[in-house]
């Protein structure tokens, strides 16, 4: 970053001399060069020196690198274009999005570090891509990130939930399809408002505020916007009581589906979430009308399985 600020005229020659090391047999050389290029992409100097395409192409070329750290840093570099060259993100949107999706599908990523970088970088890029470029990938991304909502790693929970919230901006053209994804994630997002990590709670508040306008229930949308502000503390029990009232007024046919999802969290490793799930079910049953009560499998509910 210091060289981007102070050594601009020297950078084209430095970049030219570093490119061959991206094919080095030594991991350390590939890692160092990729990290350097990734940082360059966060500065507009690559545009001024007509280096953007060269550096970007070399970063996308590192996606199949044998070293996981190289693959992760390459994605970070592509995500850095959102701050360094936002106007170029629009031009190269389809290529950048494909790189992020490939990163989320990385098969040799036991600790999901590449996936984490892909999700974080994609959230940064979304403000600058063309809607048509994201539409074809929207459903795949939403389905792919859903398992991370319950990851044992808090940074994976946070990044996936924030990304899901950002994806809702593009849901208008696929409103019915994406509405299904919102319903699939709704219980999880509401329960993780009791997450032990404040950054995950903050992410859930953001995602639910973003989901509200897509749910076709004005009361629920208003509740999410008014009660889930970052600067406002939440009385969880009272909030969930009112949320369940709106859910059962607008989607009574969803009762069994919502109950089944909550039952999964009866065995959660997080005690506050484990406690929130039966409370959630209790409020659902409290507010459902008599006509829809037959949806409830009492034996299953009593056994908690």
TrEMBL record:
GO terms for cellular component: cytoplasm. InterPro entries: ARM-like (IPR011989), ARM-type_fold (IPR016024), HEAT_Maestro (IPR055406), Maestro_heat-like_prot (IPR045206). It holds the Pfam family HEAT_MROH2B_C. Residues 56-303 form the Maestro/Maestro-like HEAT-repeats domain. Gene3D superfamilies: Leucine-rich Repeat Variant. PANTHER family: MAESTRO HEAT-LIKE REPEAT-CONTAINING PROTEIN FAMILY MEMBER 1, MAESTRO-RELATED HEAT DOMAIN-CONTAINING. This is MROH1 protein.
